[in-house]
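User: Predict the structure for this protein chain, please.
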Amino acid sequence: MEETLEKIEIEKQDRIINSALEEFSKNSFEKASTNNIVKNAEISKGLLYHYFGTKKKLYEFLKEFTIRETIKNIEGNIDWDERDLLLRIKEAGIIKLKMTDKYPYIFNFFAKIFEDSSVDEMKNLTDNYSLGLVDKIYTKNIDFSIFRDDIDRKKIFDIINWTFEKYGEKIKKEIISNTEKVNYKVIEKVIEKDIDEYIEVFKKLFYKGGSVND
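Assistant: Here is the predicted structure, written as structure tokens:
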């Protein structure tokens, strides 16, 4: 399926992918219309089925595509020489947001599949493409000496991770509730401001020399 799709020009690939991401983001799988997909992608229905076989296979392709592209973008663009864990986490989030320049509905769809899938299912799918990416973000080349010695490091990481996970869930719910294309240029500034505020709190709590009264 992917081999067939890769044989066509990039511009047409992106039209098909973006059209399908939009349709599945706005509708349940059952109500999503292949007629709308082919109309917006400017291809025939015959070509759509030639590339993907069935509507279900198209949907499964998009699930893998969104995860694979997200992981590829993070691994390929993150600054692995950044030694500050909190700045590393922030950078990963900004990289994901910038993907909407090319795929405007990718996170509308991404949020929806997370809503419809179990944690284990999404973890297994993610691990197929990059086993341990989160661990890599949290550990590779990170300067652990800046953390306080009187707090268990694992607990620090758990608190940071849980906070950003819950914040991510909040953003996903907001995206799901909005069936229109999300203007990430606008919310990127809001999210970056929120993340910066969390970072300042974490620095005061967990970094050496930090103080909640600073």
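The mean pLDDT is 84.
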